[in-house]
Amino acid sequence: MGKMPKQKVVSFPGTASQLVKQGLEQLKAGEKEQAVHVFRHALMHDSVNPDASYGLLLAYAEAGQMQKAAAWGEELLQDRTSDFLEILQVYVPVLAQLGRYDQVVETLDEVQETKSIPSHLREQFEELYTLAGGMMQTEVDTEQYNNPILEDRSSLPVEWEMILQMGTEEQKLNVLNVLRKEGPETWMSAIRELLARPETSPLMKSFLLLLLKDWQVEETIWVEKLGRKGEFAPSTLPALEESSSYKESSFLLDSSLSDKDPVLLQHAKELLQQLLLYYYPFPPSVQIEVLAAVLHFETLRQFEPLPDEQGIRDFYGVAEPGFKSMQQEYERIQGFIQEI
């Protein structure tokens, strides 16, 4: 295992095993950044603790720190002091998220030579191997498709659905941009399926619905998202800034921040747009006053360490339990709110 960087370390209470337990509890609670911090301290207590090593890998991945997760996973696989298969189950999907499909194929080529892999894991790895191989071919196809010399642009590469599930952020946005020019005729059934799949990210579902709105699709579409379900005619959906949630929240933020600090107001409205896009087409399931108060507080927290929570709650007329509940929800989804 690689050595932790030499630096002055502030003592962190508890043994490595206690810290591992604490880190796992924080991951379950959605406190991913804190979990990273705790697992690192566990390794300072015991630099070869396999549970702390795996916990740090998992925390990096859960917190969206994919580059760190890939580097740490590679280090663990080289040292072979942690559970090889346990590490692979996190490391290989991380490589796929980073678009490093050649490393996925190379790593799984080595894994296939291992005889002791349980059947269910072997099936999972074989599926990832096939998907990564397809993605590598798709990158070649997409380059050819985007070549201005080519005249035949009548269809996207057949693996575009795979890109929207496994591709990098840039690849996904590129496919969405090409789809926007293509029109709905060829792609409606596949988009319907993506909108109904639980594993499609909330933000991707929002983009697909806005794409259908751009296409002025009038037929109803079934959407399952964040534990909520419903049918929508995309052409009738309001634009984000035309929704009642945005208008009412924006009005409250204007009333509290426009005269005091226009810069803070702009930041608060950016947070509001991010949050509403995450939920779209459903509105947040909280009172607008609570939503505005939390966004006001979270905006201030970016610029000062201890905002006046009581004063903010009093201004919006919000009780502490509702405020705390929405604040916990906001902190829980921070790792996913911009994940396509």
TrEMBL record:
It comes from the Bacteria. Pfam families: TPR_16. This is Uncharacterized protein. It comes from Marinococcus halophilus.
